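thread: overnight batch results

M.L. [08:02]
morning all. the overnight job finished for the chain we discussed friday. pasting input first so we're all looking at the same thing
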Amino acid sequence: MLNRRILRIKAFKVLYSYAENRTMTLNEALSALDISCEATRDLYLLMLSIAGPLTAEAARRAEAARHKFNPTEEELHPNLKFVHNALAPLLAEDPDFQKLLERKKLSWDQDDALVNQLYESIVTRPYYAAYLADPEISLAQDVRIFKKIFENEFEDNDALWQILEDRSIYWTDDLPYVLTHVIRSLDDIARTGRWELPPLYQSDMLAAQGKSVDSDGQFVKRLLTAAFGRFTEYYDKVAGSVRGWDRDRLFTTDIVLIAMGLAEAETFPEIPVKVTINEYVEISKFYSTPKSRSFVNGLLDRLIKESEAEGRVHKAGKGLL
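M.L. [08:03]
and the structure it wrote out:
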C-alpha cells in the first residue's frame, strides 16, 4: 500500500519532530513511524467503510418519504437501486473487514451530519442520476457509483478534513493517497467479488505477485535510523555551508529534508543520487517555502558530492551517479 514517496514523507515528519524536540529517542522515533504507517491503512479502512452509512442514509430517507402525510407518487415508489447496492452488504458481511473496524474502533457513528451532507450532495450529481436511470443491476455497476463518490465527494470536503484532523494527527495529508487506494480496492472487488486487506507496504504487494523486491518497511526504518543518528552532524554541515546565514534563520524543514537526503545517499548505494535529490525536492514543494525547492536541490547536490569525495557515498552501476 505505502510506496517509497509517502514513506519518505513519514520519515521526514518524524525527523522534523525530533529536530523540534531533541529529547525524543530513536526507539520513540521508530515507534512513531510505525504508528504513522499503520494509521494510513486505518484511514483507508475508515473511508471504505462509509459505503454502509451512505446506504443506510438512503434507506432512511426513502422510508421517511413514504410515511409523509401526503407523499408524491415518486415518494411512494422510489428508485431503490442505490439502497439495494451490492457493495455495502458485501463489506458488512465480510468478517475480516468488520473485525478490523471493531478492533481499531473505526466508525462513522458520531458523524451523522457529514453523512447527511454527503448524501445530499451525491443525489444532486449527474453521475447519480445516470446510475439510477441505468437498468443494469450488478456489483460492477454498484462499484462504479461508489468510485464516482470517492472521486468527487471527499478530497475537497472541509467538514471531512476537520473530522479527520480531530481524530488523528497521523491522517493529515494522507486523504488523497488513501482515496486512490480505496478506488483500487473497489476495482478489485468488482473483479473478484470479495474484499482483501492490502499489505501495508507496496513491496509486500509486489512480493505477493512473485516479484523480487527490497522491503519498503526495512527501507524506511533504515532511512530514519541513519538520519536520526547523524542529524546533529548533518545540521552542522548545512549551517556551515550557507554563508551569511545565522543558524536561527535556517528553516527547520529544509535542514531536515537535506539531512534525509544525505542519509539516504550514504545508506543506500543502490538508489541513484538523482532519484534521492528529486524525491526531497518534490517533498519540499509541499512542506517548505517557495524558495526551498532551489535551496534543497542545490545544497543537497553539493553536500552529496562532498560526501562522495570523503568516501561516504558509494554508488555502483549505470545511472547511479
